Amino acid sequence: xxxxxxxxxxxxxxxNSVSELPSAGQIALDRLPGAGQPMPAALGSISPDIEQIAAxxxxxxxxxxxxxPVRGFVDQGQGLDTKPHxxxxxxxxxxxxxxxxxxxxxxxxxxxxxxxxxxxxxxxxARAEHVLQMQTVVVDLDAGDIAAKLAHLVHHLGAPTLLVxxxxxxxxxxxxxxxxxxxxEPAEGEDLARVCALRGEIAEKVGGDLHxxxxxxxxxVPGTVHQKHGxxxxxxxxxxxxxxxxxxxxxxxxxxxxxxxxxLEAPTAAPGANRPxxxxxxxxxxxxxxxxxxxxxxxxxxxxxxxVRMVHEGRITGDEGWKAICQYNAACLRPAWPLDRxxxxxxxxxxxxxxxxxxxxxRATAPPPSTIPAHTLGVLLDDTSPMPDDLIGPRLLTPGGxxxxxxxxxxxxxxxxxxxxxxxxxxAPFLRFTAPRPLRVFxxxxxxxxxxxxxxxxxxxxxxxxxxxxxxxLVVTPKLRMLLxxxxxxxxxxxxxxxxPDAPPDIICIDPIRNLFDGGPAGxxxxxxxxxxxxxxxxxxxxxxxxAPEAGIILAHHTKKLSKQQVKDDPFLSLSGASxxxxxxxxxxxxxxxxxxxxxxxxxxxxxxxxxxxxMLVDKIAGRWVEFDRRGERLxxxxxxxxxxxxxxxxxxxxxxxxxxxxxxxxxxxxxxxAEKFENKVGLGSKHTIRERLSVLATKGFVKFRRDGTxxxxxxxxxxxxxxxxxxxxxxxxxxxxxxxxxEVTTSARRVLPSHFKxxxxxxxxxxxxxxxxxxxxxxxxxxxxxxxxLTPHSSPKTTS
Length: 801
Known about the structure:
Elements: H1 17-20, H2 50-61, E1 67-74, E2 85-90, H3 95-109, E3 111-115, E4 134-141, H4 146-157, E5 162-169, E6 175-187, H5 190-206, E7 219-220, E8 225-226, E9 233-234, E10 236-240, E11 245-246, H6 248-257, H7 278-283, E12 286-287, H8 296-312, H9 318-332, E13 333-334, H10 339-357, H11 377-382, E14 402-407, H12 413-426, E15 441-445, H13 450-459, H14 464-470, E16 474-476, H15 488-499, E17 507-511, H16 513-516, H17 529-547, E18 552-558, H18 564-569, H19 580-584, E19 587-592, E20 601-607, E21 616-621, E22 624-628, H20 638-664, H21 671-677, H22 687-700, E23 703-706, E24 723-726, E25 730-738, E26 745-751, E27 756-758, E28 765-767, H23 780-783, H24 786-790
Parallel strand pairs: 6-11, 12-13, 14-18, 14-19, 15-16, 15-17, 17-18
Antiparallel strand pairs: 1-2, 1-3, 3-7, 4-6, 5-6, 5-10, 8-9, 19-20, 20-21, 21-22, 23-24, 25-26, 27-28
């Protein structure tokens, strides 16, 4: 006996296994009782259920003609060694009685009862090529999460006609199931091969038993007894819906559309079968009778589906699609299908595709060649009419143009884009870019959720007048979870019309491409040139054509991971995706950070409709994007220079901190005394270095002086300047004061206020006019870096004289 790991999970018996069985192993039909005759009683504790056997036979063989191959195998774990026994039962009204009699004998002998779910012509036939008719599609769920697999099947394929508990249990204790769908009529010939292919495809997508690709794979009969390892259980019908039937073409389309269950790998090709690419299907001849790697039906379905998708997406006209289907039929199907059958299949697949994907974007009939505009050289040279105004100048975004803004994640691309759009919506200049008037802007963004979007907008430090003009002309979507596909395009178009009901938008912005990308029927990603061109032409341009043909398009896009040198050599090669994108847009901009340790970004711009712009060095300071003068950049030894700058800032912060801390403990210092006391401490270096830093800080206004120290128990200094004083300085612990009128006792710190300061022009010691107000020399704060402005914790809002 062939070793079975489970009732259906072993390899199928060889096709010639029937002929190798001894005659004693085959039970003659005349030994079974006829209709109405009593059946012998089973000796086991569980007897077969004739009503369930009859219901099963009606579902699986009710429309079939011929003989039902029945097989009996001894269940494992009983200590029995009996050869398989086979009979062939006519598929007629007596089949239930005959099979019930056999099941009673099998229960007594410890055998399980199986059938091949198809009919053959003669006794002794049981190989795959002998099966003539099948009227069901079945999947065997024998492992994993059975309930989840069943739910997946019912959701995508509909409720089954029959649901059977096979009697086995998974490792988790769940009942193993057979799921049956009855067809409206028996499948024969090519349709029979199609049924077997569907059984294999369903099993692949839900993790079922893959042996059911074979037409001769046997399966247990409900109502019989499962006796593995000596434990008896009925093979039981859990659900029976006799009115549920499916059409084979519709069911095949549903199986094709059903996704693989989450957690399973995508289906792989069955042993001995090829799953070719579309190019192979469209060019390889296929003969009837399953002589090739795929059947005529499989090839025709794939080809029709391909051309249906192209028509649905507007890539070809309906007439062109039908012509292509007919050409495939004539060139590749041997023999070709009749045109009426071809039309029925095409109409069925088209109806199913429209039902699942919505209304088609039918391609309009191409205009005759005479309507294509063409101009002579003379006309172009003589036309001196004014050029149309740039939407964002100079030539960054022109009417009907497309700007692609690229940048690595977290470089500030969306923040930069928001600021640009706000200024464009207000008609205000932004960096070097200008808008001729307040523009109507629709910002379709798919990255930032609503609450974080409003937070980011509220953090922008914009001119109130700019914000006031842009309040109603900039419309922004929160994060979207959708694709810009044949359903998304009309949805977005409707939203744009609702946002601007009186006039079309001037700018449509999509941020980012990746989150909304639809690569077309082939499902390719943004790195594929054809997919990128499909997205730009059939999605982005189609959206613009529906709402505002002259609107400018702005696309935000990610960049690839390249070295800093590669980005500097050619920034626009870093755009993620296909090279088709760069050849399509009219303007490109790349925002990148040349040094990850610095906050400055470089903005490179290339223009198709105008001269290129010089690279810009930009950064966000105090909530606003500003441009730096590149003439102040170091050209050599940049890394060392940055380290020296950082060290000077560190010493500045340490010196100011020391002065604050020492004064709080009741100690004031002159310049020389501080330098000598803290020489070679906390990394400040020699006393000469400390004196030099103090001199610089005094010139910049960070340090001032107080000559009279008698208030703090110190004398009047005779030096040129006096005791060092910094903003916010207090002396010693807080002291109590008594109000002479109310007697109220309060505590307060004794402030150390300056009396003199160092003139930034002459270096002379001058009197402070108002000690209560800390004033910095004019222009000093403008020259300070963000680190110098915000490094010291004691700093308060600065004012200049």
